[in-house]
Amino acid sequence: MLVAERIEQVRAWRGHVEGSVGFVPTMGYLHVGHLELVRRARRENDAVVVSIFVNPLQFGPHEDFARYPRDLQRDLRLLQGERVNLVFAPEIAEIYPPGFTTQVDVGPIGERLEGASRPGHFRGVATVVTKLFMIVQPHRAYFGWKDAQQVVVIRKLVADLAIPVEIVAVPTVREPDGLACSSRNVYLSPEERRVAPALYAALARARALWQEGERDAERLRQAVRARLADEPLLRVDYVSVADAATMEELVVVDRPAILSLAAWLGTTRLIDSELLGVE
User: The pTM is what?
Assistant: First the structure.
């Protein structure tokens, strides 16, 4: 497994690769959800690249960039075991050298939900993903459905800019009690960790109603909020039932939709989602 810190190293490696390349962009501190993306990429491609880069552009001024968990050596050991061909782990200055000013804005789709709660977040995501795609030049890139809006944003990005990368979305990997795997779960206190599965329980309640035929989007949102209200430690940011292509809120669920939420547990902000009729 080659570990590269410089763009020129990745390009030199890429120039000698034959066959398909699968790419898994990460911010590191890998968990089983990341490894599922890597395994999917391994099955479907001749070579696999993983990037590890905590992207400062997608963090707001009062967010957790400085304390975001990092353990590069642990991550490299895990990726070695998954037969990854190349790990790109650049420093910030390699991606954003002095004088860097260009940013990619995907428009209204990135201004809703996560974009409204975290202004500029998706501009940062779209910018770094575009740059990584240009460096790695993969055939396929793998993302998890837990960050459902991110999947929609990146699909919009590659369609609008005609970037020749297939975006593969992989089902959310969960702990046995339903909590979606996330690097930020390490922040949770034992009591907060006990409460955290309520997020998925709330989504599952609304999804069950949808499966039973409920199509009133507000009733689905209310079902989520009602379940979350049972947990006084939870502070809800948003509950959404949105069009799966535009992330616009729905009145009636008459098309593929994404049911999603964000909530605070202490100082930790968690997100989760469920798909309603999405292939």
Answer: 0.96
Amino acid letter at 214?
Answer: E
How much is the pLDDT for 279? 77
CB atoms inside a 10 Å sphere around CB 103: 13
What domains can you pick out in the chain, each with its CATH number?
A: 2-170 (3.40.50.620), 183-273 (3.30.1300.10)
**Which of 75, 79, 16, 27 has the alpha carbon at shortest distance from 53?**
27
Name the burial class of residue 101, with classes exposed (0-12), middle (13-18) and buried (19+) by CB atoms within 10 angstroms of its CB.
exposed
Annotated binding site: 27-34, 58, 144-147, 150, 173, 181-184
Catalytic residues: 34
pLDDT digits (tens, 9 = 90+) for 13-34: 999 999 999 999 999 999 999 9
Axis crossing angle, helix 198-211 with helix 217-228, rounded to the nearest 10: 150
Write out the binding residues for beta-alanine: 58
The stretches in the chain having pLDDT less than 70 are none
Nearest-Å Rg of the Cα atoms of the chain is: 19
